[in-house]
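Re: duplicated header lines in exported structure tokens

Our pipeline writes sequence and tokens for each protein into one text file. With two proteins the header for the second block appears twice in some exports. Here is an export where it did not happen, for reference. First protein block:
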Amino acid sequence: MNVFVARQPIFDRSQSVYGYELLFREGLNRLVSGESGDRATSVVIANALFFIGMRGLTRGKRAFINFTRNLLLGEAATTFPSDQIAVEVLETVRPDGPIIEACRRLKAAGYLLALDDFAYQPEFAPLIDLADIIKVDFLATSVADRRQLVQELRNGRIRFLAEKVETKQDFEMAMDFGYSYVQGYFFSRPDIVTARDIPGYKLNYLHTLYEINRPEIDIDVLERVISHDLSLSYKLLRFINSAYFGLRHRIHSIRHALVLLGRDEIRKWASLVTLTGMGEEKPHELAVLATVRAKFCELVARRIGRGDQHTDMYLMGLFSLVDAFMDRPLEEILTELPIADEAKWALLGKPSSFADIYHLALAYEEADWQTFGALATRLGLPESAGPEIYRQAVHWANQIFS
């Protein structure tokens, strides 16, 4: 049985990750709705707990999971400790007596209750009294409704979560209206500035990226570039001596670390560290997302027999968010980076032999299972490989940022 599980970050007002909503599907030929909803949620609970591992999926943050009527009545949420999840009551659940009583029991046991895709109706008053979080869909509500819901239902206990927040302007609106949390990909959008506004340290990072990724670079040049950057040198030695590698003896020289890792692995690692350094004032999740994308693209390439392109695929995923790190147009930045043309073309939406792998990564990330299935078939990637590749990519990112 193949269970597809993706995640979407939920941020607090400081843009730190508060939790993740888990988005799932049982196989690409099944719908997670109607009668299959109970079964699919049961499967994702078991899958997260026993196969992927809750902490691996959520990095120790709270998991928001949708629960159908039958799962609420069956107290399926008690599969998890109360401090690990938020129970999302779907908007399709009718708040009758048995549901209200089930929610009261969950609340008494310490579970967090969230009302999903909320639109006020009088019959929901008993659920509102129990709710900890009310989720408001910013794509489906007017500006007036977004404000009015908070003004009318705020009681000092209920917190409001704006979901499907895709722009910086909507994020700022949510903050102005008093929302405590936001969910969406607003954080991965660039806030374009003019060249004269770019801080000098970002230009230095861009120069380092250029040097690291020149096709003709050799170990000697790599050693010189990294040795001249104190931060890179420190992070490289810390990385090579981490538990991830399990070396018996500590490595003390940049040269030794480069020889052990090899040119391609060093280029991937140094590009990641340099890119994340550019975004030190950005939400940490931006670096995590770029890392997961990069590893996902690399692992897909290896799986479908294109392992000779794994470094280019990795860099394609990593640099897919470079515009958000730099707050400059993507096309402008890519002209300054010596990465494979096919990677550049894919990122810019032009015809490219890399494009399907890039869009496959985006489809999984966004839980667009229909697009993912079509692209996987075209690439010759078995359905069962998707969840495992995603799990490995998330695990690898967790290791990098632990």
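Second protein block, exported in the same file:
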Amino acid sequence: MRVEYHDEVLRRLAEELAYAPKGWDPTVIKSYRKKVQLITAAVDERDLYEMRGLRMEKLKGDRQGQTSMRLNDQFRLILTFKTEGGRVAVLLEVVDYH
């Protein structure tokens, strides 16, 4: 699956191993990079939903059309899928759910 980044910080985190934004926990960065690898390896969003450990959830309300993926107990990656069959993942943001 192709990955697009809504945010420059997310793109740099995925592409530059030495990059670590100030205030980001190293375990969240490591988990984010692993998730990007899984997304890239997936054919479409169905592959990701089949991986139960990712804890993917379709969001509701003002986030309808978006999906969350668990990075750890506290942080979630918010993304959306575009094109027919969900073959492009757009990474929107990392949010603190607590």
